[in-house]
Specification:
The structure is a homooctamer of 250-residue chains.
Chain A: H1 3-15, H2 20-29, H3 40-48, E1 54-55, H4 61-75, E2 78-81, H5 85-94, E3 99-101, E4 106-109, E5 123-127, H6 133-145, E6 150-153, H7 161-165, H8 168-173, E7 176-181, H9 187-194, E8 199-203, H10 215-222, E9 230-231, H11 237-248
Parallel strand pairs in A: 1-2, 5-6, 5-7, 7-8, 8-9
Antiparallel strand pairs in A: 2-4, 3-4
Chain lengths: 250, 250, 250, 250, 250, 250, 250, 250
Amino acid sequence: MTRERVQALLREVASGAVSVEDALVRLAAEPIEVLAHSTVDHHRAVRQGYPEVVYGEGKTPEQVVDVCASIAARAGRFLVTRSTDDQRAAVASRFPEARPNSLARTIRLGGLPAPGDAAERRVLVITAGTSDLPVAEEAVETLAALCIGSDRLTDVGVAGIHRLLSRAEALLAAKAVIVVAGMDGALPSVVGGLVRGPVIAVPTSVGYGASFGGLAALLTMLNSCAAGVTVCNIDNGFGAAMSAARALGT
Amino acid sequence: MTRERVQALLREVASGAVSVEDALVRLAAEPIEVLAHSTVDHHRAVRQGYPEVVYGEGKTPEQVVDVCASIAARAGRFLVTRSTDDQRAAVASRFPEARPNSLARTIRLGGLPAPGDAAERRVLVITAGTSDLPVAEEAVETLAALCIGSDRLTDVGVAGIHRLLSRAEALLAAKAVIVVAGMDGALPSVVGGLVRGPVIAVPTSVGYGASFGGLAALLTMLNSCAAGVTVCNIDNGFGAAMSAARALGT
Amino acid sequence: MTRERVQALLREVASGAVSVEDALVRLAAEPIEVLAHSTVDHHRAVRQGYPEVVYGEGKTPEQVVDVCASIAARAGRFLVTRSTDDQRAAVASRFPEARPNSLARTIRLGGLPAPGDAAERRVLVITAGTSDLPVAEEAVETLAALCIGSDRLTDVGVAGIHRLLSRAEALLAAKAVIVVAGMDGALPSVVGGLVRGPVIAVPTSVGYGASFGGLAALLTMLNSCAAGVTVCNIDNGFGAAMSAARALGT
Amino acid sequence: MTRERVQALLREVASGAVSVEDALVRLAAEPIEVLAHSTVDHHRAVRQGYPEVVYGEGKTPEQVVDVCASIAARAGRFLVTRSTDDQRAAVASRFPEARPNSLARTIRLGGLPAPGDAAERRVLVITAGTSDLPVAEEAVETLAALCIGSDRLTDVGVAGIHRLLSRAEALLAAKAVIVVAGMDGALPSVVGGLVRGPVIAVPTSVGYGASFGGLAALLTMLNSCAAGVTVCNIDNGFGAAMSAARALGT
Amino acid sequence: MTRERVQALLREVASGAVSVEDALVRLAAEPIEVLAHSTVDHHRAVRQGYPEVVYGEGKTPEQVVDVCASIAARAGRFLVTRSTDDQRAAVASRFPEARPNSLARTIRLGGLPAPGDAAERRVLVITAGTSDLPVAEEAVETLAALCIGSDRLTDVGVAGIHRLLSRAEALLAAKAVIVVAGMDGALPSVVGGLVRGPVIAVPTSVGYGASFGGLAALLTMLNSCAAGVTVCNIDNGFGAAMSAARALGT
Amino acid sequence: MTRERVQALLREVASGAVSVEDALVRLAAEPIEVLAHSTVDHHRAVRQGYPEVVYGEGKTPEQVVDVCASIAARAGRFLVTRSTDDQRAAVASRFPEARPNSLARTIRLGGLPAPGDAAERRVLVITAGTSDLPVAEEAVETLAALCIGSDRLTDVGVAGIHRLLSRAEALLAAKAVIVVAGMDGALPSVVGGLVRGPVIAVPTSVGYGASFGGLAALLTMLNSCAAGVTVCNIDNGFGAAMSAARALGT
Amino acid sequence: MTRERVQALLREVASGAVSVEDALVRLAAEPIEVLAHSTVDHHRAVRQGYPEVVYGEGKTPEQVVDVCASIAARAGRFLVTRSTDDQRAAVASRFPEARPNSLARTIRLGGLPAPGDAAERRVLVITAGTSDLPVAEEAVETLAALCIGSDRLTDVGVAGIHRLLSRAEALLAAKAVIVVAGMDGALPSVVGGLVRGPVIAVPTSVGYGASFGGLAALLTMLNSCAAGVTVCNIDNGFGAAMSAARALGT
Amino acid sequence: MTRERVQALLREVASGAVSVEDALVRLAAEPIEVLAHSTVDHHRAVRQGYPEVVYGEGKTPEQVVDVCASIAARAGRFLVTRSTDDQRAAVASRFPEARPNSLARTIRLGGLPAPGDAAERRVLVITAGTSDLPVAEEAVETLAALCIGSDRLTDVGVAGIHRLLSRAEALLAAKAVIVVAGMDGALPSVVGGLVRGPVIAVPTSVGYGASFGGLAALLTMLNSCAAGVTVCNIDNGFGAAMSAARALGT
């Protein structure tokens, strides 16, 4: 039941054309559609502060372009994740001002012009090793799409703990921290013991053998001895950024 | 927003005391509560044909009695599953006409007076071994609570395939079949290849070692080579009965 | 022992050429072959209402065509699942009236001319996301092969619960519901709490990281808090359709 | 503190511009070395806003009392989690003003006198079923210890989705939401799609069979289709509260 | 259809009272029951050489005695496995000549009077450690029930390989070998490389931590680099003995 | 210590050149090498009845040819498993009389000229589905290499149980049975309940989704309710044949 | 073949009573038993530097005392692990000078009089939390039995990294380090990056929920990003000590 | 450095007893803060005896060359592991004296000119099968880079135990042993029972089916019945070599 239909029904009640009893039945029969006055996309932007994000996997380049165009028409911006080279090329051809990022496998229209500019509520994105960078970059791009600035701290895994500790100032200054780590996934426990704000741990599938595709790092993080560290799905930089945005109050 | 409140609002619209616009706002702001004119219990009985079932685990006998009384007052019947001896004793003391079943760990008020009476839409409950009986019994009691008759076929596991095949008539006559099996969980595949109607497989935690608490039987059933066999949680005779009831159209 | 051999044996008893005792021994020695008077394929059609379905995986195009021809000769129809492009092309070349479906990876002869036509016992096939569509499509094609109509409800995952709730009418009208979902696999729990008839949950391998190839969704569905939801193997749209057919009474 | 800053500081000491005492203070203010002169407890309170929490498991009542006394002497408050009845009795005997909570298995000194009082930054703690209450209660008590108010929304699992939707106002008003669910663990996905702020999911070990001690709910939550939902360890209400506190900025 | 009923039917055909066609229909309609002329127990003894074995778990002492009496009446012997002290006491009270074995948790009537007597086809039962003895003893008792002699080789795990190698003669003389091992489960690989006859590996749940209840030993044995080693369920000494009996041709 | 060295030592003792004490020390110091008088390959043929089998995986065609030539020179026959097309072509070019089998991925020199010839101790190799054939074929070729005849029973899975039962004669006549099955792996339980001799179960990786690469079938077989069924590694037709050969007494 | 028998045989060769050829055959037939001149226990002490350790689990107090007496008679010392209170009491009653340790669940005779005395090759035993102490204590007692001194560093988990770093001197001075940690198991990665000598990681079953009995910590340690860290079984303090002893060269 | 020592040092600077430069050196020698002025690579070489090893996976050939050049400039040597053909070619073109090893997938500059030369502290690298060679070779190359000699013992799996036992001398002479094994992973248990020094077990992913990518071998090794065997990650020859180096005291 759209807003228009509810309005029409109420007018009929006001005019006496429909009885109170009949109106009650019709309203009760469709309790949900009352929210259906807007499309899903519009509603999500209203409800959660950002239009639906386009998940590239399994779509043709044309399909991705179509969805981007539909979202851009209403919201003036979009973000595509897990995209292929072809998808990014197709989107970039239609939206020359969009910013593709092959490391992050994203392309976005709007948001921050570039990571690195000054902002009240910056997020620090830390990686344990260089192989974890694509996941971190996906987080950075998602934050940018949400107009949240970010800084990077790269290759500071716990086997060389001094690398992290020497950057204590950056750690303490961050409003929220995303920690991306594969292999033993131990870095979030150390970071979580040092900082006071939100610490969002992202296990990566980096490692071989008994890392079991990121399972080892995932379990490590869920069992973190630093209280209040929370965990995202394996390789899910996008989700970590969304979680940081929730914590910072987008 | 209860039914009464919606009714009152519509009357105010009808009388002109509230404008159409204002009523629209108030209705849109609470799209959900429109359904709240009845309690959850009442609504479930309307929506799904049976009042909420009481899950005994983790409740005191007094709490179970209270919930039973509340449901009985409105629905005239109830079913408690996973109950302790104390819980059943307490309920039986309050409701002398309720039927406790210590093997099934259930107690119910109403429904079929006893399994075994004639009925259009009987369910056949098959067990592979005698140790699977408690799960089968929970299914039988749940069916009885739903006023669905049932028959049992016990200890007909596939290692002695003739035991099952010699009962082909019972198999073919059943409107729906629940197959309860632990260990290798192979029985539903054979049954599923013989009968035409719904076959609902219930793995049990019976077995030791590499049965891993029913995981082996669960995986067997999910991979059944008999098309259209569906699977419930381990030891979940209650769920299997509910599924059979859905298929039979309660 | 074929029907002809039993007949011959009985004639020999009738004529006195074989004694009752000897006949007894020979019958007892081959209790099973009595059923062997017909081929397996014929018997399945009689027993379960549809000829054996051709599983394409691991077969050459020629083999698939041969099996299809054999089944079509007797049953006048067939269904191939998990087929390759080459297999479908080969079958379509031999059977021009067969309907290939590249999304579902099926090809079928006979059954419903097309999904969407009116029918007493339609199945509603719901998907949580667009990536779940191939599995849903396999279910739709299998239903069509079984002459069961179906409707689709696509991309109504629980993260935007209003999308599902706004379609309550379609939900409540369905005779049976197949719910296809990957990632968190949460949709069947919501659907199972809304509708009264059979709800068949199909986990998909959609998702990455800790979805572990559909394991996460599978476990979610097995633990569904909506009573009576049953579960199929991962990505098994075919099995879900067969299960729906069992419930609807083909 | 970089080499240059240490060098400069030492030069100032050498020149008399900075006294030994002052230099010592400034060196001690640096996050690392510094710690070696004070106890861990003091530093954690400074660094993370709350003194070390006492984990009761595996300690004697006397040991728990000793640790509590040590912390109370410096911080004026404490929190014990996973405590036994004996431990709580011993602590309560020593600290009559402490508040034991047998459902949450906690005892705390200080913090909020009681959940429910008005506060800027309240947390909404939602449970899918009544069996999830102990975990929710541990979260509530931990929040109270951190002087954060909380509200409860109990037994609103997705199988009766209207129960949750009818409380939309409470959902939308919360600054942060903790969602506690066992079995299918589907609730956080629905909540995460409705609210804009932090959503912290806590799987519980409630369920049997294929819930595998909470594994099913854990995987569901990690794969949540609602972006930005993060996950804690199984049954870890304490960790969820600490995470909420991080997000709210204690 | 019992043997008597088939006989009667054939006599009616012979007498002309029933036509060949009618007899055919009746036989075809009950293909299975032809085997039903004897009880399951009788048939198994005929088919597989030993009456059904009584699995004690989950039965009352009275039930166990009843089943034993029923089997003894026809077969003159029985074997009970996984029995409790009470069950064995009850059986021994009824059958004073039965031999209870508390280590193996068995009681049997008949079979070999004692392990150790001379026999053509003896089985060698090897254990890696002393904690594996109960499983080995269950195998020895089962073999005795099947009238197969056995010898023991105890505590010869691979960490002290000389212990095994010094017993090469016993190894080479055995007709079949059962190897019982927990922890690393490595012993069957060594034995399988030394002997030529059947080697049946039984993992035990002995070990702690990463043995995961015998899973480690189970996987070791399944991956044995000695070709032709086969594996039983965890702790399943009974199954190993049955397998040896199959190989030796009972 | 080779045979020659031991001989020389004993001669020195006999001649008095070495004292008994010294000889004792030298023998005790090298207990192992006593067996080293022959090469490993020779010894295995003596010890276990067949020369070492060549595992093709990870070798170059040249390496495979070299090993085959080395074994053929001494034993006059060989068997290569898990070979590539290139490996088989290379071996066939060097040994024109060798028999390659692309389905089984084997090539062998010697053994049975072809499966199907009459023999005392034939093995019955049963497959549940046609996709299990490559594993069965590997078993057949290995048996042939060991000069053991075999028969096949194909596509007799339990979902059409009559297919198996109609072949009871073949089942009962077999000296040993290898049962190859993927998906639910239920077939060995039925076969194990019918036949008396050795039943060796081989799970295959056939299936998708929750078969988890053969894990489901593996667990089913380990938990078989038919006593005395033993299990090989997934897809290990070679091992099953070696196990059958052990049971038959090569 | 015992030492005596070899000696006798050689004497017969020397005397001409046995020919060189015959002696050769007899020696070759029993290549292994040459080592059997001493008991297993004696040989292990010779081969690996310490007599067999008594594993208490599953033994009666009397059995433990007997084994201890047997070992003490030859070696003058013993170590019992995983012992019960009753076992330790029985051993202590027989050997008053033995040192029981209820935290470590050990009792030993001989070795270091007490941990803490000066020694060249001391081992540092680090624990992440206080709950890990029993495992650490088992390591300390085992080291003492091996006459290796040890020091403890307790409760220095990575969530408060300063606790560890402030003890850098102790870390750097240790000849070998055993790191005992449950929950996230992250501590060995940090330690492994700081020290140069052997680092032996021991996961403990401390933790709840997704620690899965120590699996999480085990995987963390196997995936340690600090190169050269090796791992023991869960809770296996004994094994860690033995490994340290191997590295230090007992 | 404790507060007191810092205080004392600062007083000495203030008094002129210690110069600013000297104080700086002494502060820099302290493990933590210090590091912020120099690169990680330098410190690791000082701290752990070898510069950072280059992990090739996921880097471009140019990136690998750049890192190698950077390390070579300071340390005069380097080691690259898990490298591609292209990476090794690029490095070899820039550093013609570097030694590429395609089996080990490594390239190194410096270290031992070749494995095989005489050295005090040689490591014995044992493999169970030929397929385990690449992992063993990675260990050998890593040892060479660390200037540690090594010997190989290849294809001595436990199924032919004599192959290993005949090499007892090599085993007993080794200062440390690395045992590389896939499939059943049983070899380290045998080796661990024979030798006295460090035994480092490396599971490999060699095997198929139920080896689950090396999991079976990994669990076997963790549960080794030979005390003091420690375990590395699957296929981690590099880590095993680093562990051996730690034990030998690089």
